[in-house]
Amino acid sequence: MASGAGPQLPDIVSGWAVERPGPVASGPLVTVRRALPEPGPGELAVRVEACGVCRTDLHLAEGDLAPHRPSTVPGHEIVGRVAATGSGVSGFDVGDRVGGAWLRETCGTCRYCRAGRENLCPTSRYTGWDADGGFADAALLPADYAYPLPGDRDATQLAPLLCAGIIGYRALRRSALPPGGRLGIYGFGASAHLAAQVALAEGATVHVLTRSAQARQLALGLGASSAGDAYGRPPEPLDAAILFAPVGDLVPVALAALDRSGTLAVAGIHLSDIPPLTYQRHLFYERNLRSVTSNTREDGREFLRTAARIGIRVTVSPYPLSRAPQALADLAADRVHGAAVLVPG
């Protein structure tokens, strides 16, 4: 294990784990104190500076996603400093700023991995689901799946880029938005407010549809052409749409708003049931319905380059790590402005 003059790791890691999944009011998160193992081959031991709170963390806490292991520390938008490295690590040194994201491991040999579609790897593993994540003051990250991050930026501004940003970027590409096209965004939280900026920078007209008045104001401030109620009708037919809200009832609403040959991309890992669709009203004229599953590392690298190039603006609501349950509760109730981010210490 290599170590040096970088940040010191605590003897005991303090954080939160999902003990008994259930509604946030039932207290699914409990405090934990654990010894952090030394980093194994190819691993980084990281002192956490900030960790974003993703809707996937909420799904895991509430039981919408079945736990993969008991008492797992959630959190997969991790920003931290390398405190120690395991054997065989190259490209990262002690003291470097790194990011840990949702995709944690793939086999590298299946037909999906070989085709550059590692997001579909049948044996893929995920941070905060298959291994402890960043709702803690330290974590282990696989170096091959970590991202180098600038050391001079506020960690809370970087954390949401690592899932909300990356997944939003993949959803935007899955929506097949044509150059200069008309994009509808349903739901406007952490992921949506970043994807919208990429679309706007690329010349799109963006219409936002969300139940939150505060989110509608944010959308207009970022340059959206319109912002209305989630079940309303956009002012013009859409070439593409992205559904960020985990609400299946909005699928037929968004499909009906598409122009001929338009595509709806559903960005969430969990969605409530979709009501029956009418072929003529929702799918005819070659309208397309697509899902979005995780991301590839290349998606992450492309998005982080794009975010730096366009000067993406990240709206965050910081919470001390000690208030992680409140952050989840606020996310569940749509009380978070932009992206919620936990800050240890």
Report on the architecture of this protein.
Its cofactor is Zn(2+). It catalyses: a primary alcohol + NAD(+) = an aldehyde + NADH + H(+); a secondary alcohol + NAD(+) = a ketone + NADH + H(+). The structure is a single chain. The protein is of the alpha/beta class and 345 residues long. Helix 6 (213-222) links the parallel strand 12 (205-209) and strand 13. It has two domains: 2-160 and 315-343, Quinone Oxidoreductase, Chain A, domain 1 (Alpha-Beta Complex), CATH 3.90.180.10; 166-291, NAD(P)-binding Rossmann-like Domain (Rossmann fold), CATH 3.40.50.720. It is built from ten helices and 18 strands. Helix 4 (164-174) crosses helix 5 and helix 4 packs across helix 9. It has helices at residues 55-62, 111-114, 155-158, 164-174, 190-201, 213-222, 250-257, 279-283, 297-310, 324-332, and strands spanning 2-3, 13-18, 29-34, 43-53, 78-85, 97-100, 103-105, 125-126, 138-142, 146-148, 182-186, 205-209, 226-228, 238-243, 258-266, 288-291, 316-320, 339-343. The model has no long low-confidence stretch (mean pLDDT 96). The two termini are 26 Å apart.
